[in-house]
Amino acid sequence: MGFTFHIGELRVFFPYDTIYPEQYRYMCELKRALDAKGNSVLEMPTGTGKTVTLFSLITSYQWAHPELGRLVYCTRTVPEMSKAVEELRKVIDFRVEVLAKELDAGSEAPKGLAAGHILAVGLSARRNMCVHPEVSKEGDRERVDEMCRQLTAPWTREKKTASCVHFEKYESALGQQSQLLDTGIYTIEDLRVKGMDKEYGWCPYYAARRLIQASSVVVLNYQYVLDPKVSLASSLGGAPSLPGGKMRAGGLSSIEPSIVVFDEAHNIDDVCIESLSVKLNRQRLDQSSGNLTRLGNEIERVKKEDASRLQEEYKRLVQGLRQAGQIDEAMADQLQSPVLPEDLVSEAIPGNIRRAEHFIALLRRIVNFCRRYLHVERAQCEGPLSICHKLEEDAEVDSKSLKFCHERLRSLLNTLQVSNLEEFTPITKVADFVTLLGTYSQGFTIIVDPYPEAQGIYDPTLILRCLDASIAIRPVLKRYQSVVLTSGTISPLEMYPKILGMSNVVATESFSITMERKCLCPLIVTHGPDQVPISSRFSLREDPSVVQNYGSLLEQLVQTVPDGLVCFFTSYRYLEQVLEKWYETGVISRVLKHKLLFIETADVVATTYALNLYRQACDSGQGAVFLSVARGKVAEGIDFDRHYGRCVVLFGVPFQYTLSRELRARLEFLRQHYDIKESEFLNFDAMRQASQCLGRVIRSKRDYGVMIFADQRYARSDKRSKIPDWIRHFLEPGHVFMASDLAVEAAGNFLLQMSQPFEEKTGVGASVLTPQALQELQAEDSKASDSKEMEKSAIFAPPLKRLKLNLSTPPDPPSSNLDAVSKQIW
Questions:
Q1: HSE (side-chain half, CA atoms, 13 Å) at 4
Q2: What backbone torsions phi and psi does residue 13 show, to the nearest 5 degrees?
């Protein structure tokens, strides 16, 4: 099983017997970016083996270039993480098998890394990795974190009031050996099994964090790389450690020879912005005041019982943030500060906040200022510099001290030996707020909204909103040699480098899907049988004819489409409005005569239960309809492959709420700093969400499905051009302006055609390539490349040959000959 082939001088280990043409093209572009030590943005259709393609190429590249650092593979969910690690296991197992077979019969078999093995681990939150018999029973993430810290804090362990046997075994194992595990591929579940095994028994969470430092491949969530509050930058820094625990060269100030891959990166700019945005309201500020009172009392107690602790902290603060921030590993992951410039980390804490009581007084003035600032009747926006000036004037706060607040609070909580950090989340949010406020003068805005929910309830909210997605990803781009953004729906490609500030982008490519038969049927429905346009635009949402035509479309589809039918609406509110009208007009009852109906809600538990029942209904043969929402959980992480999704319908264009003040501020920022027009970004954002919804139904080349764009605006070129190329390639000219009844007829004909027997072809031009067919394809590519080179050289070849001929004449020719040579050259 599997085969090897070469791309240039690179030998690639591929663990399957056949390969898709787009997988090979993807590898070629990715290798080109890695050779140039640059970044890339690559779009590959869903269901074409993007994950195994990435791992095959990059691990082969690591094998050929031992000086290359680790691969940091970032994904969004735990199931995606587990799938990725399993694909990596297949790649490495195949490589080990091939290298073992190639050994001479009499030679000694190499072991460990020399035999092709690597160390790779997956890392997730404590909730997903904990094996403590009591803590692991808790379902709430914050509760699990709190209980874990109470058992693992160094002062708790010193007093022996409570402990975790798994953490104690982890500490003991570190003292006895430099490496917790041998080389191998370890999923989250593998580590949990080791943690429950009597032979090991250590904590999987802390073991994974430790193993990262020696791993060649790390698979984890986006937040561990982008969100500074849970960042693992220190653990991910540098190349994998050498035997004996020594690290290879490379530090924070230099570019590390490592590769970072962001899979499913179509929403990466939103992740960056959310990681650096903070919200405060009156309730949180009241809780912050309570936190400060508690901290003040604790400071007085420590002064009386152990004043040396505060004195030692004061001395460290004089030396700078780096020394003051040295805390135990068990606490570090929960006390990461917002993104700070590297030069700031070496500065000393200002004298006015070194003493604990002075710092508490400063925070109290800041909290009181925020309370007064929230007393507004109308929404308002201001920049960071304006708020800093008001803080200096009204609260007598030195703005230079603001950027140190989070680090200072972190040091204080550690000095006071606070285990229950969740209790102090409110004051930590305030510290985040003012730290970002004092650090960045651009790329942020401060919004005060007295009615944030737009429901007439007065609950003023203070929002520090990040507008520049490049701020969060900038440290990653500066630190690592190559950053790869990839997804099945990341069109248009040129937008991402612009809004993320990516430079040295070597490869930007969208790969089409090769199919021997038309397995996708995109249809754009612009009107109903009565010729009334259908659209979810605000002016038409209350139009009864639009809702009626949408209902008629659904009724006809449930009678035509077998198995599963998935529908997406633009928002929960619009879904509720349409359902109410459908219920009143009898649409729901008529649909239920043919298929069961399930609905996504904001409740994650209820939605998960509905999804399980939906799958059972599809498995039973009756089929079902699932009504969902764009930008929701289902649209982002749930696959409706095979019979679970034979048709997907998108009712409307999923634009963001354009009256949102946060969105308006970001649009203005993009216009001023990146010259991106408002309509351009809104269309880009809406179409990437639409493409993500539609891509849920195609998960392999053997799969097939109907994609219906039910809104007249999709027929416009500004929307249609932003559909991914691999979907737009199957959009026929006659399927752009369709009535709903004609679209249903086209869908029925397509599904009937797809149900017929089909045999896959082999060889060049087929959708699946055998090793021999791949060699033929490479030979054709080589010939095409050679012919292009000959065409380029032919432009210069004749004069060069004549020049060589004339220069071969005897030296010192007559001037007339020299004139002739010059004429030939020119």
A1: 17
A2: -100, 115
Phi, psi of 335 (to 5 degrees): -125, 25
User: Can you point out the beta strands (E) in 102-240?
Assistant: 119-122, 184-186, 217-221
CA-CA distance, 409 to 419, in Å (whole number)? Answer: 14
SS3 of residue 87 by DSSP: helix
Q: Going by C-beta distance under 8 Å and a sequence separation of 6 or more, which residues neighbour residue 47?
A: 488, 641, 698, 699, 700, 701, 703
Residue found under tokens 């059972």: 616
Residues across the chain: 826
Instruction: Give the tens place of pLDDT for each residue, 520-534.
Output: 999 999 999 999 999
Number of H helices, E strands in the chain: 36, 21
Nearest residue to 428 via CA among 332, 291, 559? 291
Rounded Cα–Cα distance for residues 95 and 115 (Å): 9
10 DSSP assignment: E
Measured between alpha carbons, how far is 446 from 367 in angstroms, rounded to an integer?
16
Quickly tell me which residue has 């399930």 as its tokens.
598
CB 636 within 8 A of CB 76: yes
Cβ-Cβ contacts under 8 Å for 209 (sequence gap 6 or more): 123, 232, 235, 329, 333
**CB hemisphere CA count around 209 (13 angstroms):** 23
Structure tokens at 518: 């038309």
Q: 8-12, 28-32, 244-248: lowest mean pLDDT where?
A: 244-248
* pLDDT tens-place string over residues 275-332: 999 999 999 999 999 999 999 999 998 888 888 888 888 777 776 544 444 434 433 3
- The CA distance from 397 to 98, in Å, is 66
pLDDT per residue over 91-130, tens digit each? 999 999 999 888 754 555 555 556 788 999 999 988 899 9
Pick 401 or 456 by higher pLDDT: 401
Give the span between the Cα atoms of 395 and 366, in whole angstroms.
Answer: 7
Tokens representing residue 124 in the block: 């997730």
Quote the pLDDT of residue 466: 95
Q: How many CB atoms lie within 10 A of CB 388?
A: 19
Which strands, in side-by-side order, build the sheet including 39-43? Answer: 184-186, 119-122, 217-221, 71-75, 256-263, 480-487, 39-43, 505-510
For the chain, the first-to-last Cα distance in angstroms comes to 59
Helix H or strand E segment including 649: strand 647-651
Distance separating alpha carbons of residues 47 and 700, to the nearest angstrom:
4
Per-residue HEC secondary structure of 669-687 comes to: HHHHHHCCCHHHHHHHHHH
CB 194 within 8 A of CB 200: yes
| Cα–Cα nearest to 405, from 343, 359, 440 | 359
pLDDT at 350: 77
Check if the beta carbon of residue 474 is closer than 8 Å to that of residue 503: no
Contact 450, 378 (CB under 8 A): yes
- The separation between CA 147 and the C-alpha centre of its own chain, rounded to angstroms, equals 29
pTM of the model: 0.86
**CA neighbours closer than 13 Å in the CB half-sphere of residue 714:** 32
Classify residue 250 as left (phi > 0), alpha (psi -120 to 50) or beta. left
